């Protein structure tokens, strides 16, 4: 009984590396998309109990920032005169709430906050005007 001779590959045959390179690039892409490179930081915040929160609504300095301008205690205030107008009131360290109307740009908010900081404000909060109604 004669067995067939095994066929040997010719010496010139090469193994293609293209599928291997494709798999490596797919794995690289997968790990790049699923990895997070940013260090996410959080800040611990301790909130007081509801019963221990003092009523500070009388001590608030409230500014209304609308598309027409700035209003303080019902009076229109020019942006240039904001520091001089608020300095006496902010000397006691009262917190400031800026009530921002819809349509007011970020630049206007930042300029008012800069003026408040120059006037001596220590605590500034932003509030949307339509959230009050």
UniProtKB/TrEMBL annotation:
Main location: membrane
Gene Ontology annotations for the cellular component aspect, listed alphabetically: plasma membrane
GO BP of this protein: protein transport
Subcellular location field: Cell membrane
Keyword list, A-Z: Cell membrane, Membrane, Protein transport, Transmembrane, Transmembrane helix, Transport
InterPro entries: ExbD
Transmembrane segments: 20-38
Family assignment from sequence similarity: Belongs to the ExbD/TolR family.
Name of the featured protein: Biopolymertransporter ExbD/TolR
